[in-house]
Design brief:
about 575 residues; alpha+beta; 6-stranded antiparallel sheet; 5-stranded antiparallel sheet; 15 helices; elongated
């Protein structure tokens, strides 16, 4: 992604204009690598996201809601100790590197004014958020501790001396050195020039190199100096855009000659849009790793069990083979002598063809016949038993697949309910089994997602199996309409109307398709039926219902259209 030094430069300008002079009103760490400082400035609260995520590291003002954990981390407690109520004095960048500093002032317990720094380092897997005592130049704490064994040049532990990241042997693009002019002459090819600009200047990603190469080659400017100056000025007055280049979606502080997907008012709004789905998926993957592991392990276990059961069922097809041999032995018992190991008898079930029958020399002729009858009866009984077991195993697989799909589509805030469900179903050990704890879990059931169709009809969506059951069996009226994708895991969707319009049904079907395993499909079948036709069998797994009298509609889920209905 293009959160390079130039984008960081543009972001610093945006944050300075909004946040400098504001005070820290709230501090939370909703995710392991991400901190949110709520800054009160100009009579507004601005949630400032500081992310050290190895894939999506960034700094921005975010509007995406988050859950504040009940138990704060040690790093959160340290931030609260030093930054609660602190005033932002300045925001700046380390040259054009992906290191941004926030300077805070506050008074300590003695009433003396102290200065603190918060360093946000956007460096892939080495990304970090570091709290620094600027007067002592000491690290107070970091969101990721880096011991000396891991990095001899730069230790990031409480009490260690703070050192800036190793300096790159590259030129600051805002300096007076004009390597770009010579490079432009030497490398007329766009891609080659972009690569050379990346090597020469600090803070350039490949995308920024391409944008500058296009600017230097543009006939819009009289000289390359004018073109270069114009390019740098874009970081001071950016036009935030999501663009397409090399068949990939990316973001930038301006579009140049790239194909524009969308334009945004601020860089922070741009990043919210660009990262929302990717970051949410990553957070769910991290926080739900244990849940995903439990579901996948049980899924594999049941799939192996099903194969074994089907193999055993196939073996029962030979039941008549043993019955026939028992009957032949009973019919021709006079031809069988004790001590024989086999006998060949005419098979009157097969045109008197000779049939070889193995015998036990330790058993009498009648006992050998009974042995074959017992084997036949055992296999016959197994057919009924295995049939029930196979149905149960298939039901278990369907349920686990629906759980896997639910986790894949979940928000981080949905994971606790999914964990409770796994505990209640016996896949996870429950830490608290007291009635009070169960009542607390029941009361804490989150609300379904809400949408509104174009004609104003309310549409509710269950985001997990517990929500699905509660929505369909408790909240929905009998006259409301229920929707679900056909034959694949997905959410329950309720249209709160007894006579919804065709447009509303279509939009609800698109929502149902989007919140299902068929999200990426082009033509998804969605069943819809009045809620009064829905039944939940006794003992059925969470989220499982049966219905009749349904109609089916085929839709293509479009994320942009669904977002408009929120």
């Amino acid at each position: 992604m293009a959160f390079d030094g130039l984008f960081a430069h543009a972001m610093v300008n945006e944050l300075k204009n909004t946040l400098v002079g504001g005070r820290v009103a709230k501090i939370s760490q909703p995710y392991s690598n991400e901190v949110i400082l709520t800054i009160r400035a100009n009579r507004h609260n601005y949630p400032l996201l500081l992310s050290a995520n190895p894939n999506y590291a960034r700094i921005q003002i975010t509007k995406i809601p988050y859950e504040n954990p009940q138990t704060p981390t040690n790093f959160t407690m340290m931030l609260r100790k030093y930054l609660d109520g602190a005033k932002i004095q300045d925001i700046w960048q380390l040259q054009t590197d992906r290191v941004i500093y926030l300077s805070f002032t506050r008074r300590n317990e003695l009433g003396d004014q102290i200065t603190l720094l918060l360093s946000i380092e956007i460096m892939g897997r080495h990304s970090n958020v570091i709290l620094i005592d600027s007067q002592e130049n000491k690290v107070l704490d970091a969101i990721k501790h880096v011991p000396v064994q891991q990095d001899r040049y730069r230790t990031l532990l409480p009490g260690s001396t703070y050192r800036t990241p190793p300096k790159q042997e590259k030129t600051d693009p805002f300096s007076e050195q004009d390597f770009f002019s010579e490079l432009n002459k030497q490398f007329p090819n766009r891609d080659v020039l972009a690569s050379e600009l990346m090597k020469a200047y600090q803070g350039f990603s490949k995308l920024s190199g391409l944008l500058l190469a296009d600017t230097l080659h543009s006939a819009e400017y009289k000289t390359v100096n004018e073109a270069y100056k114009s390019f740098l000025e874009k970081t001071e007055s950016p036009t935030p855009v999501i663009i397409t280049h090399n068949d990939k979606i990316d973001f930038s502080f301006f579009s140049g000659q790239m194909e524009v997907q969308s334009t945004w008012e601020t860089l922070s709004e741009l990043l919210d849009k660009f990262y929302q789905e990717k970051a949410q998926h990553d957070r769910v993957k991290q926080q739900g790793a244990d849940l995903i592991k439990v579901v996948k392990n049980n899924l594999r276990k049941n799939e192996r069990k099903l194969k074994k059961q089907e193999k055993e069922l196939k073996a029962t097809e030979n039941a008549d083979f043993y019955r026939i041999k028992g009957e032949l032995l009973t019919t021709y018992l006079y031809k069988v002598k004790r001590g024989m190991t086999s006998v060949t008898l005419p098979n009157y079930y097969n045109n008197e063809q000779p049939e070889k029958i193995n015998l036990s020399n330790q058993l009498s002729p009648s006992q050998n016949a009974q042995k074959y009858f017992k084997r036949y009866q055992k296999l016959k009984n197994a057919v009924k038993y295995l049939g029930e077991q196979i149905r149960h195993t298939k039901s278990e697989i369907n349920y686990l697949e629906s759980l896997a799909s639910t986790i894949e589509l979940a928000d981080p805030s949905d994971l606790p309910e999914i964990k409770v469900e796994l505990q209640e179903q016996g896949y996870l050990k429950s830490q608290k089994n007291s009635p009070a704890a169960k009542n607390k879990r029941r009361k804490s059931l989150s609300k379904p997602a809400e949408f509104t169709s174009n004609d104003g009809t309310r549409i509710s969506v269950g985001k997990n199996n517990k929500q699905n059951d509660h929505l369909t069996m408790k909240i929905a009226k009998k006259s409301d309409f229920w929707l679900h994708v056909k034959n694949i895991p997905g959410s329950h969707v309720i249209v709160h109307s007894s006579s919804p319009s065709d447009e509303t049904l279509t939009q609800a079907a698109q929502i149902a398709a989007y919140f299902s395993k068929g999200r990426s499909s082009a033509n998804v079948a969605v069943d819809y039926v009045p809620v009064k036709n829905i039944r939940k069998p006794n003992g059925a797994k969470p989220g499982f219902v049966i219905y009749e009298g349904q109609k089916t509609i085929y839709v293509t889920p479009e994320k942009e259209e669904i977002e408009k209905l929120k």
